[in-house]
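Table S7 (text form). Paired inputs.
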Amino acid sequence: MRQEPLHVRHHRRRPLTTEDAEVLLGAAREAAEAAGIAVSVTVLDAGGHPLAFRRDDRAVLISGETSTRKAFTALQLNAPTAALTDAVLPGGPFHTLPTALDRPLLFIAGGLPVHREGRLVGAIGVGGGAPDQDHEFAATALAALI
């Protein structure tokens, strides 16, 4: 069986683009605004580099940091942060992970990995609302990308 050239395989594995990031950012902010919540939204590429960030001027200042950490956590563990909250409780498999690493992990709902064609291509994090609200805003954004 003949293997496709690298440039063809790469094209099929489309990375998350800045245009995609703007769609995610806009959809999350629109959902939050409709709920009357001021948020910060962070979108990271597969390498953990920022593609888009926006903090509503009414959002609490720390929401910028929490949105970024939620996105980073979802990316690194390839899982929604809402699904990981119990894992860091005493006796959980990740109980010591937040303090064992010199990384900005945050195990609070609001971070989601972004997949394309079955591959992890980035993550979105939302901060500023209650954790369940942040999760819903991020999920709404993901649905807008598809």
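Next pair, protein 2 of 2.
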Amino acid sequence: MKLVLMSCSNIGTTNYKLRIITSVFNKLVDTIIEGAIRAIELLTRGDRDVLQVMMMTLLVSGTATAISVVLGVPLGLWLALTEFFGKQVLNSLVNFGMGLPPVVVGLVVSLFLWRSGPLGDLELMYTPTAMIVAQALIAFPIVAGFSFAAILSINPKLRWQLLSMGATPWQANLLLIKEAKLGLIAAIIAGFGRVISEVGASMMVGGNIKGQTRVLTTAIVTEVEKGNFDVAMAIAYILLIVTYSIVVLLTILQHEKKVL
């Protein structure tokens, strides 16, 4: 009799756990579906707040990526082609920066831009400019590191061959960059992907101010804090759409053909 009761109790407990798991799973699926529907509604309706946040995201992350490319590609090229004392140390610092936590970058930028900081008089704290600076610092070592690897993957004798054929150092470098296009665009994709998805530095230096410094990632955090998980999921879908669209464009440029 006791064995029967214990067996029934175990079955009841198992069924109760299964009901809880099923309920949680169904709620999760419902939230995902509701988020997708809400994202479509926000995009088709042309919601002003969502469009403003999207444009701010593209402005901040796009500008930061462009700055990191302008600074990172030449540094990667220089590291790959030049031998000098301390090269390994500098290379290790670049590699270290590739994994630097964004929140640490945000903290350092905040210390410089805060009112009592060295650059406090510029009043850049809680502005898109501060966010661009922070994100550029995050993407810069990534672009430099990938560029360094891309240039190293080319035949090391190619530059000397170009120079011996009468090319100037600038022309030789430009031809090397063209030859390493696949790797260099991969560097841009990696840098852009890192900054458009980061939230810590943007929150610290931007303040997540509605209509001024709010971007898609910080908007997601805000909606989660409010308990609006369907809205947060909708914004997450929009972030994925924006990111994928940019990556597709860069991939087409990388391979010079349509990529789906």
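The radius of gyration is 25 Å.
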